[in-house]
Design goal:
By secondary structure, the protein is of the alpha+beta class. The chain folds into five domains: 99 residues, Alpha-Beta Plaits; 233 residues, no CATH class; 86 residues, Calcium-transporting ATPase, cytoplasmic transduction domain A (Distorted Sandwich); 146 residues, 3-Layer(aba) Sandwich (Rossmann fold); 103 residues, Calcium-transporting ATPase, cytoplasmic domain N. It has 26 helices and 26 strands. A seven-stranded mixed β-sheet has the order 14-26-25-24-15-22-23, sandwiched between helices. α23 links the parallel β24 and β25. The N terminus is likely disordered.
Length: 729
């Protein structure tokens, strides 16, 4: 057996029985205590099981699971360690990782979304009330009654515009201070001028006041802004989430004394004790002990590797079977985990420079709006000498050309397309992802956990004699190594009863041995049992003096993987496979799927370099991956996707999340993205056509600010209805 360690976690049995409506988010973190990531929890039954079990642990006062964030916050005594809770959860069937809550707390706020929603609600409530008063004026109210209604409208509208329009005012001020014109400058100017002009009209007893237009304009613009925010917002930075995965404390060994210290207190040359099941807190070299390391989060290797004295280790790897003493070579910000976080941060900044169609249109549109309004004002002043009339027309031009339809053009399409993709099993996290997805010509896949499920299965059990299989099952039950767990499960499924093997003992880094019918029996690494290692993934069984027998394993292909790859190739996309796994395994999968471009043994930096090389050659790359080792590549790609079973950091770095196990929606997403881009272009055409018709009417003085607001609303509605066409195939 090549490694011993944690069993792969399967979906909880209760999940299948839980209705979707019950998959509610758990309570928020109570603050303080220990924070653990739970990437495999799925439903309300998981919440109850985890909380109930952790409460039973000595020293734990409370445990609160947040299903949405897939983590648990535990309030406990200082004697309770993350490792103890992780081990307890593993026995329960849940994978867990320690998180640094101080790092995550900076990123887990949704204040902007709540702020926009609150301002939108205020604007909507005020708009309804002001419109009711306006109806009375339109119906013939005059003189004192009309003035009273105008003053009441002012009392409602002015504070509303000041409060609800604050996002536009703030952005406009920032743009002007930077000596540039953004979309929010004409919006702010229209809101201010419409409100100010209406207040002057009301104070002078004028017949027309346009408070309703100002509030309506504010409401529709906020609706577009909130829609845009919801489609674009990503909960937190992938780089910060990677940093949060770092172990915050380590056991430092000084002479015969062991002390739990903060990572920041460690220095190069210190000795650190890493117990079985714990993640490496530092980069270093093993000076005592043998074990096996799970490097899947960092390198993508599907199976653990043997480690002994002199073996280099990296922060983020998991020690599986034996205690290790490690001499520190790098800690904290110098560790490999932080270097990976730096790769992600660099890639994030590069991708954030992507400019959407709406942003590009705004560069031309915003100056044009101001030019038209100024031209209207100056032209009418020169023609009539009436400043009041000229200002009225200029405000109407500003409102009628306000970029509401332009602001809705992209978010409306993204929302409609996202809904359709969600029903197909894909969650769009970034509003510009569909635009970028439509440009993709190359797709790069990771292997383990992406094209495969990352769950090894025995492939030759039928060839083993029944007694030998019973011995193998007994030995496998004594280990938590992924191959051992898979072997024991397959034996149970086949109805094999384990043989009565005694004196069971696990040898860290090698395998399991015992005695059966007076003979020594072993299950483990090829060299340990006297066998020749083959090219296939295998564990070896030796009974007494008989020749060792190889039990081979294959990784189960993810459902729909073959169909997804075939669909992408049919669309003319180039498909690559880049994995950290060994060449024999990667090559076999590539041949099975018909992928000719593949690379094995790739480290995180190699994946980023490969994507950068493709981008330099002019290709638009979509990366599909699931592990910590894929996070930097996911962020560096033009657009990225990860399965829902992926590590938290990979899901955060991705633009799109595959909600189910089936890979077939991947091809459908690329096809739909082309349709979405077409709808976006149609919406821009609608916005341009609207302006070509409406602007001359406003310039000629045939549109009051209220008519301009109604026309603007009609254009926004048209854009939204066009976007809704995407909801149907």
């Amino acid at each position: 057996m090549t490694a011993l360690g944690r069993a792969p976690i399967s979906a909880c049995p209760a999940c299948a029985a839980m209705p979707a409506a019950e998959a509610l988010a758990g309570a928020s973190d109570p603050g303080g205590g220990l924070l653990l990531s739970l990437p495999t929890i799925h439903c309300a039954a998981c919440i109850a099981a985890v909380e109930r079990d952790l409460i039973r642990h000595p020293g734990v006062q409370s445990a609160r699971v947040n299903l949405t964030l897939k983590r648990v916050s535990v309030a406990a005594d200082t004697t309770v360690t993350p490792e103890a809770l992780i081990e307890r959860l593993a026995k329960l069937g849940y994978e867990a990782h320690p998180l640094d809550g101080a790092t995550l707390s900076m990123t887990e706020t949704d204040r902007q979304g709540r702020d926009l929603l609150m301002r939108l609600g205020v604007a909507g409530f005020a708009m309804m009330n002001v419109m009711l008063l306006s109806v009375a004026v339109w119906s013939g109210a005059s003189d004192a009654t009309r003035d009273l209604f105008h003053w009441i409208s002012a009392i409602i509208a002015l504070p509303t515009v000041a409060f609800s329009g604050m996002p536009f005012f703030r952005n406009a001020f920032a743009a002007l201070r930077a000596r540039r014109l953004g979309m929010d400058v004409p919006i702010s100017l229209a809101l201010i001028l419409a409100s100010a002009m209406s207040l002057v009209e009301t104070a002078q007893g004028g017949r027309h006041a346009y408070f309703d237009a100002a509030v309506m304009l504010c409401f529709f613009l906020l609706a577009g802004r909130y829609l845009d925010f919801r489609t674009r917002a990503v909960a937190r930075s992938a780089a910060q989430h990677l940093a949060a995965l770092e172990v915050p404390r380590a056991i430092r060994v000084t002479g015969d004394t062991e002390a739990l210290v903060a990572l920041a207190d460690l220095a190069v040359g210190d000795l650190v004790r890493v117990r079985p099941g714990a993640r490496m807190p530092v980069d270093g070299e093993i000076v005592e002990g043998t074990s096996e390391l799970d490097r899947s989060l960092l390198t993508g290797e599907s199976l653990p590797v043997w480690a002994g004295v002199g073996t280099p280790v990296a922060a983020g790897e998991v020690n599986l079977t034996g205690p290790l003493l490690v001499r520190v070579t790098a800690a904290g910000r110098d560790s490999s985990l932080h270097r990976m976080a730096d790769l992600v941060a660099t890639a994030e900044n590069a991708r954030n420079r992507y400019t959407t169609l709406a942003d590009r249109a705004a560069r031309v549109y915003a100056p044009l709006v101001h030019l038209l309004a100024a031209t209207a004002f100056l032209g009418w002043v020169w023609h009539t000498g009436d400043v009041r009339l000229s200002l009225n027309i200029a405000v109407a031009v500003l409102i009628i050309t306000c970029p509401c339809a332009l602001g809705l053009a992209v978010p409306a399409v993204v929302t409609a397309a996202s809904g359709r993709l969600f029903r197909a099993g894909l969650l769009i996290k970034d509003g510009s992802a569909l635009e970028r997805l439509a440009e993709v010509d190359t797709v790069v896949f990771d292997k383990t956990g992406t094209l495969t499920l990352g769950r090894p299965e025995p492939s030759n059990l039928a060839a083993l004699p029944r007694p030998a299989l019973a011995v193998a099952a007994a030995l496998a039950q004594a280990s938590s190594h992924p191959l051992a767990v898979a072997l024991a499960e397959a034996a149970r499924t086949a109805g094999v009863r384990p043989a009565p093997v005694g004196d069971l003992r696990e040898v860290p880094g090698y395998g399991v041995e015992g005695r059966w019918q007076g003979q020594q029996v072993r299950l483990g690494r090829a060299a340990w049992v006297g066998a020749d290692p083959g090219a296939l993934t295998a564990t070896h069984l030796k009974i007494g003096g008989a020749d060792p027998v190889a039990i081979t394993f294959t990784d189960r292909l993810r459902p729909g993987a073959e169909s997804a790859v075939a669909a992408l190739m049919a669309q003319g996309k180039a498909v690559h496979l880049i994995s950290g796994d060994v060449p024999a395994v990667v090559g076999a999968l590539a041949r099975r799927l018909g992928i000719t471009d593949w690379q094995a043994g790739a480290l995180p930096g190699d994946k980023v370099a490969a994507i950068a090389a493709l981008a330099a050659a002019g290709h638009k790359v979509m990366m599909v991956g699931d592990g910590l080792n894929d996070t930097a590549a996911l962020t560096a790609a033009h657009v990225s996707m990860s399965p829902a079973s992926a590590l938290d950091a990979a899901r955060v770095a991705s633009d799109i999340v595959l909600l189910g196990k089936d890979m077939r929606p991947v091809g459908a997403a690329l096809a739909l993205s082309g349709q979405a881009r077409q709808r976006i272009r149609e919406n821009f055409a609608i916005a341009v056509a609207y302006n070509l018709i409406a602007v001359p009417i406003a310039l000629l003085g045939f549109a009051t600010p209220l008519i301009a607001a109604l026309a603007m609303s009609a254009s926004s509605l048209t854009v939204s209805l066009n976007a809704l066409r995407l909801r149907q195939p």
